[in-house]
Amino acid sequence: MKKILFFAGSNSSKSINHKLVSFAATQVAEHKVEVITLTDYKLPMFGEDLENEKGYSVELRMLYNKIKEADALVISVNEHNSTVSAYFKNTIDWLSRLDRNFLKDKKVLLMSTSNGKRGAASALEYTKNVLPRFGATIIESFSFPSYSENFSEETNSISNEVLLLGFTDVLQNFVHQIEQ
């Protein structure tokens, strides 16, 4: 049994990426899953002066330990102006300063969603290129377009049958890959 950590790269209390990643967690039955909210780990805006002055916070170390304890990660990134949010970038900055290889040996499923037709594809591509620099192995990725049209918050599930099939296929392949 593998331990899989799920989280969204958003700091919005109404994050659709958090809703998508939470749905994904409900679809994995044969492993230990944990969904966290990054806003539970308060991190100030990264700066070298702050790092030199105060070092690394307890909350940063707690988040780092959560990641280290997991066998695999499922991350859903949000998009601001065709890239990842400053919030998620800041989280990555802090983690990578604490340990440049904070994702070493981590298998990752990357997802993204937005209300647009591209489903935050630019943020997804950016993240696919960046996380391997910190040791991650990207196993699968999935961009979920037009969230409000294709996801039912009433039933907490993907309502578009074609997208549900694609999502299920990606998730099943990811789970199969982490079992090896």
TrEMBL record:
Residue ranges constituting the NADPH-dependent FMN reductase-like domain according to the UniProt record: 3-143
Record field: transmembrane: none
InterPro entries, A to Z: Flavoprotein-like_sf (IPR029039), FMN_Rdtase-like_dom (IPR005025), NAD(P)H-dep_reductase (IPR050712)
SUPFAM superfamilies given in the database record: Flavoproteins
Domain of life according to the entry: Bacteria
GO terms assigned for molecular function: FMN binding; oxidoreductase activity
GO (cellular component) term, any one: cytosol
Pfam families: FMN_red
PANTHER family to which the protein is assigned, alphabetical: CHROMATE REDUCTASE, NAD(P)H-DEPENDENT FMN REDUCTASE LOT6
Name used for this protein in its record: NADPH-dependent FMN reductase
Organism name: Aequorivita aquimaris
